[in-house]
């Protein structure tokens, strides 16, 4: 089954997974845009790599990083689905011609 997402303004949550697809993510992470999640993930990784946090704080950061990475992946998967749908639609339109496109 191909999930189609309507094309909307770039500032909306169009590439976001459907409701209910994010049961394991905290609500504040689910509401982040791709860029917000990515930027926060970069900060989390930098703090973990610095190694200056106590164990409990490091574990909390790691869990937050996992949630942020999952949200980024959801955004990327949604974008990939939109591109595939657009390509399939485009291919369907191109395939209805005289076949000259196939010779290129």
Automatic annotation (TrEMBL):
Alphabetical list of InterPro entries matching this protein: Exonuc_VII_S (IPR003761), Exonuc_VII_ssu_sf (IPR037004)
Organism (species): Krasilnikoviella flava
Name of the protein this chain belongs to: Exodeoxyribonuclease 7 small subunit
The protein's Enzyme Commission number: 3.1.11.6
The UniProt record lists the keyword Cell wall biogenesis/degradation: no
Disordered: annotated segments: 1-25
Superkingdom: Bacteria
PANTHER family found in the cross-reference section: EXODEOXYRIBONUCLEASE 7 SMALL SUBUNIT
Keyword set includes Plastid: no
Substrates-to-products reaction catalysed: Exonucleolytic cleavage in either 5'- to 3'- or 3'- to 5'-direction to yield nucleoside 5'-phosphates
Intracellular or extracellular location(s): Cytoplasm
Purpose of the protein: Bidirectionally degrades single-stranded DNA into large acid-insoluble oligonucleotides, which are then degraded further into small acid-soluble oligonucleotides.
Biological process terms in GO annotation: DNA catabolic process
Protein family (similarity comment): Belongs to the XseB family.
A molecular-function term among this protein's GO annotations: exodeoxyribonuclease VII activity
Assembly: Heterooligomer composed of large and small subunits.
GO cellular component, one term: exodeoxyribonuclease VII complex
Keywords of this entry: Cytoplasm, Exonuclease, Hydrolase, Nuclease
SUPFAM superfamilies documented for this protein: XseB-like
């Amino acid at each position: 089954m191909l999930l189609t997402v309507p094309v909307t303004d770039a500032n909306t949550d169009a590439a976001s997974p459907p409701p209910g697809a994010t049961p394991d993510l905290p609500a504040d992470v689910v509401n982040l845009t791709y860029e917000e999640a990515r930027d926060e993930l970069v900060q989390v990784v930098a703090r973990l790599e610095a190694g200056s946090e106590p164990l409990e704080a490091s574990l909390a950061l790691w869990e937050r990083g996992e949630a942020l990475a999952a949200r980024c992946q959801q955004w990327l998967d949604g974008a990939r689905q939109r591109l595939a749908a657009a390509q399939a639609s485009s291919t369907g339109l191109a395939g209805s011609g005289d076949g000259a496109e196939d010779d290129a």
